[in-house]
Design goal:
The protein is of the alpha/beta class and 400 residues long. The protein contains 14 helices and eight strands. The chain has an eight-stranded mixed β-sheet, sandwiched between helices. Helix 5 links the parallel strand 5 and strand 6. Helix 9 runs antiparallel to helix 10, helix 11 runs parallel beside helix 13 and helix 12 packs parallel to helix 14.
Length: 400
């Protein structure tokens, strides 16, 4: 694994400054199924912004899509690519599975792309969704060659947090409040803060899906500010004002909708965007919200939901683990039907959105956990455990 990481470092040194003219390439369209030169069975999808001339080195985003769907992986990034002039590359081969295999596939992709296109290697970024986000986070924390990580719907694999972090990268977390990994992503922000890694977290009203293009553009707005601070892009006051104004409108709308915790998060992002005068204006807004009874009630309810969610998850996982070990035939799944029915009641309660979101997260987590555990046991030829997971999964989908 270590050699794979260091190969990227060597490659970047050898290709930096590579200025040979490149052939004319289609711009503003998604180009699919481009072969990896050293592995003809592997391919990637690539997108060049409309202004790309093939000669001027541009920033690049490597994207990992968990089902190896290159077009789907690139689509959310296109408005950001056009706004800030990024080349987009997404593997059609790399998908959820063996970490070692994926690292090897990713390194071959890095080699091919950096050797064949005019890239500004001081502006490399890496992104992914779900399992792809975990792989992107690994490369971000371990290599030191990426300016930013965009992790959507998942953070790190547990062992990656023991790698001494390369603190020069900026980390954008993106998650839906109905995403099964929502609590993971909020906890991850605390870890990033403690590790002194510059980071932010965008929360949307979504389940476990790729962020929308408009949401992704907001993430790249934030990364643009970090690029100014690192002096890898020239500061543009017009762009800064647009980013600030857009964020302020969002924060104000969240406040008007009584989504006070999210509004505070948005106002706090605004503090990073402009000058001290505007900072004071935003600080007053934040202080006023935090003093309000409604904000205090929302934060208290949020913490209470987090505790309850962890209790339910622990209970379900303990029961699942015990039944899986015995793998005895189960005919009625009485316990599971009762638990899922209770969660479905919460899921339908529009008057309690925090509990509703929690129920959706737990149901999705459990359904995916049972499916993936079943597939793992199938691969390991644990047929009795696979059969148990199949029956439980069937019951979950019918009741849910």
């Amino acid at each position: 694994m270590k050699n794979s990481v260091y190969s990227i470092l060597f490659l970047l040194v050898t290709v930096f400054g590579y200025t040979q003219d490149k052939p004319s390439l289609p711009t503003g369209v998604i180009i699919d199924s481009v072969k990896v030169a050293t592995a003809p069975t592997e391919s990637y999808t690539i997108y060049f912004p409309k202004k790309y001339d093939g000669k001027t080195p541009l920033a690049l985003v490597f994207i990992f899509e968990p089902a190896a769907r290159g077009k789907e992986g690139i689509a959310p990034f296109i408005p950001a690519a056009e706004t800030y002039q990024y080349i987009l590359v997404c593997s059609n081969t790399l998908k959820n599975g063996s970490i070692q295999n994926n690292i090897a596939i990713a390194n071959r992709l890095f080699d091919t792309v950096l050797e064949n296109y005019t890239i500004d290697t001081s502006q490399l970024y890496i992104a992914g969704f779900s399992g792809g986000a975990r792989l992107a986070s690994y490369f971000g924390i371990s290599t030191g060659v990426f300016q930013g990580v965009i992790a959507c719907g998942a953070s790190f694999n547990d062992m990656d947090k023991f790698i001494p972090p390369s603190n020069n990268f900026s980390y954008v977390g993106m998650v839906g409040d109905r995403d099964m990994n929502y609590q993971e992503m909020t906890d991850n922000k605390t870890w990033l803060d403690n590790a002194k890694i510059v980071n932010t977290l965008f929360i949307a009203h979504e389940e476990h899906v790729w962020p929308r293009p408009s949401e992704m553009l907001s993430a790249f707005d934030w990364l643009e500010i970090q690029a100014y601070r690192k002096n890898i892009r020239p500061k543009n006051d017009t762009v800064l004002k647009r980013i600030y104004d857009t964020n302020l409108r969002l924060a104000d709308s969240l406040k008007a909708n009584n989504e006070l915790v999210l509004s505070v998060n948005a106002y706090e992002k605004g503090i990073t965007f402009l000058n001290t005068t505007d900072d004071n204006f935003l600080k007053v807004k934040i202080a006023d919200i935090k003093k309000s009874k409604a904000y205090k009630e929302e934060t208290a309810k949020t913490e209470k939901i987090k505790v309850l969610e962890n209790e339910i998850l622990d209970k379900l996982w303990h029961r699942f683990d015990q039944e899986l070990k015995s793998a005895k035939p189960v005919t009625n799944f009485k316990f599971w039907k009762s638990e899922i029915n209770d969660l479905n009641v919460m899921k339908a309660d529009d008057k309690n959105p925090l509990a509703q979101n929690m129920a959706i997260r737990i149901l999705n987590w459990f359904q995916i956990s049972v499916y993936e555990t079943g597939q793992e046991n199938k691969r390991n030829q644990q047929n009795d455990k696979f059969a148990y997971c199949q029956e439980l999964y069937k019951m979950i989908t019918e009741v849910n």
